[in-house]
Amino acid sequence: MQSAEDQLVCLRRCFVWADRDEKGFLAGHDLKCGVAAALGVRPSKLLLAQMFRGCEVPGHELRVTMDEFVAVMKTRLDKTDLLEGVRRLFKAMDLRAEGFISRRSFQQACEMTLPFANRETLMRVFREADRDDDGRVTYQDFERMCLLAVQIDASNNK
Fold this sequence. Notes:
Helix content is 65%, strand content 6%. With 158 residues, the chain is mostly helical. The protein folds into two domains: 4-79, Orthogonal Bundle (Recoverin, domain 1), CATH 1.10.238; 94-156, Orthogonal Bundle (Recoverin, domain 1), CATH 1.10.238.10. The chain has a two-stranded antiparallel sheet. It has a two-stranded antiparallel ribbon with strand order 3-4. Pfam families: EF-hand_7. It comes from Phytophthora oleae. Residues 81-116, 117-152 form the EF-hand domain.
């Protein structure tokens, strides 16, 4: 994982590389190339429109300045890094590679990593994540709980 400063430098380089004509903004094919260089995947027109909503110039196609590009891409990369961490944690807790976290797998993972944690509190967390009460936490349920925890943590640290 890159440091925040390295990430900004990389995003600026992607912008400069894509702005071959030195217009000071990216539009159309140049924008698609800049985003592809930053993310490693070629975005669709719909994705570009969603990502850079608010960067439109009336009567023209989407035009994105370097500051707008860096801000949007940084947010996107931060979210991608967070979701990658959530995926890894889910895989680690899915001890039997079943595609879900069973109550037993959750208990075993907690015993290994949180030996002194309050068991009742941990089971409350599991029950909260297991929205349909089937004894399993799907990836979607797990992701929802992790993102909620990140939001709560961020609001508590303001």
